[in-house]
Amino acid sequence: MKYYEDSEGEGTMPKKIVKKTLNLNKYGKLAIAKYKKIVQILLAYNAKDKQQEAFILGQITDSKLKIGNIYNKLISDNLQEQLDNTRDALSNFTWINNFLKNQTKDQRVSNVNDFYDKLKDCKQMLRLLPDKID
């Protein structure tokens, strides 16, 4: 967040921006909780056929990717909380990367382009987020 001088005093952030940021963070955390619940349900679900299994795997990776992206966008003036958010984002991208690498050849072939795009996004975040933590 960018701090600047305003009518509220030097080096403070306008109350309007603080309120909007807090609301965005609140909605981001709610979305994370919902996506985590989706992942939990999907991981416990037993697919009836390969097509359904491929769909479920796609939904799991999509949800984990969204969770990581939301964690990466949460903003906090507390350095430890910001660091925890970045670590949680990194954890989700690492999970996706490992999950996609461990897919069987048949599972990958059915969604090769979709998995390739997700894996590429994850690898990019795995390169960038450690620098953000440092």
- Which geometry do the CA atoms define? globular
Please provide the count of β strands: 0
Mean pLDDT: 79
The N- and C-terminal alpha carbons lie at a distance of 18 Å
Biggest sheet statistics: none
Radius of gyration: 18 Å
Unreliable residue runs: 1-8
How would you explain this protein's 3D organization?
With 134 residues, the chain is mostly helical. The chain has one domain (15-133). 78% of the residues lie in helices and 0% in strands. The chain is built from 5 helices and no strands. The radius of gyration is 18 Å and the shape is globular.
Give a short synopsis of this structure.
With 134 residues, the chain is mainly alpha-helical.
Question: Topology of this structure?
Answer:
Blueprint (H helix, E strand, L loop, with lengths): L14 H30 L5 H24 L5 H23 L3 H6 L1 H22 L1
Descriptive tags:
134 residues, mainly alpha, 78% helix, globular, disordered N terminus
